Amino acid sequence: MKPTAGSLPSTANPLTDRGALQQRFWQYLIDDAPKNRQQQDADKVEADYWQGKLEVERVAQQQRQADLEAQQQQIQQFQQRFVSHYDKELQRVMASPELISQGSPITEAELGLLDELLSPNVNRNRVLTQLTALPSLSNALVRYVNKQQLQRDGAPVTNVRLAFNFLGVEELQQVLPWLQFQLWRRNGPTSLRLRKLWRMLQQQKKMAGKLAPSFGCNSGLAEGLAVLQSVEIMLLLHIGENLFEQLRHKWLTHARQAGEKLAHQAIFDVKLPSRSLVSAWQKPHLWGFQTLSAHLSNANKRFMVEMAQQHYHKLSAATEVVAHAHLITISSTLKKRKLVEPEQLVLWRYSYPSLADATKKYA
Q: What domain of life (predicted)?
């Protein structure tokens, strides 16, 4: 299918473009509710059950039903007030670089290691020194290498230095940012949206490594940048989920102390609304750029600057690879999950003429 006369090629950077299909992809990713649940026909069950009962029983049941509906209405009002308050707080926090920095799980030591891994001439000694100062990441690397050793029938390693020596520079660039990204969200329960984020990022990371040689790029650098590109959505989920739990705990404590049983029940049952996160995501933002670039060297900061650009032609080869991988990941997800019509997807690919061939081949 060729693009229609009215479809103009886009010069937008896929990493910052917020088109309709991108929004559909992010809405799918952020949504935490399973789809296609079967609903029972409660009205028919209710009618069958009360058929032939005495009038006094039906009247009593109607009164109980009316009381229950009034109670449910009050619960919904409490929950709406809470969600409205949460929306305002989330918008306030995500609009403040200082508050984002305070809520970020990313430490300066971790950024120092990532900065070294992005360098054109990676110093293995410096990487090892920085790695040994991060116990969680060191343990994750040992587990990763032992998993590889198990597949090869090799002997397990017992410390981070041995694990480190098993890997070359390019593999360290591929592995360490990915392991660190997972650790940033290991503190709490693993939500459905977080599992989808990991799945998406793993696909994007592998695709960047696969595309890198054709652009004359180092695969390790390309995969590392593909991971860092997703820091923005990670920050939103991390800060959004933590803020929700903090406010929920505060409201539950107040309701308990005030003896407001219905309010306590309402807040106890409320779930983090995906629409709040989607609304925050749709607003212009540079959360990842602001968080990462402040602690990177000038040589590596340019990658963050490029990925935050609005126009595709301002990307270098390394970030162009990430743009390709990102678009292919979105395209394949939309296709696999049947979130758009096939014709829409084809036209969308053609709107990025420089990327159309790659997305058609891999997505």
A: Bacteria
C-beta neighbour count of 353 within 10 angstroms: 13
Give the gyration radius of the chain's Cα atoms: 25
CA distance 38 to 41: 10
Residue 187 tokens read as 């503190």
Task: Give CA–CA dist 207/227, Å, rounded.
Answer: 11
Encode the chain (363 residues) as per-residue pLDDT tens digits: 444 433 445 678 888 888 889 999 999 999 986 554 444 444 454 555 555 566 667 677 777 777 778 888 999 999 999 999 999 999 999 999 999 999 999 999 999 999 999 998 999 999 999 999 999 999 999 999 999 988 888 889 999 999 999 999 999 999 999 999 999 876 666 788 888 999 999 999 999 999 999 999 999 999 999 999 999 999 999 999 999 999 999 999 999 999 999 999 999 999 999 999 999 999 888 898 888 888 888 889 999 999 998 888 889 999 999 999 999 999 999 999 999 998 898 888 778 766 656 655 665
- Would you tell me how many other CB atoms lie within 10 Å of the CB of residue 63? 10
For residues 81 and 264, what is the distance between their CA atoms, to the nearest angstrom? Answer: 13
Instruction: Tell me which amino acid residue 205 is.
Output: K
pTM tops 0.70, yes or no: yes
In this structure, the dihedral spanned by the alpha carbons of residues 261, 264, 269 and 275, taken in order and rounded to 10 degrees, is: 130
Residue 305 and residue 289 in contact, taking contact as beta carbons nearer than 8 Å: yes
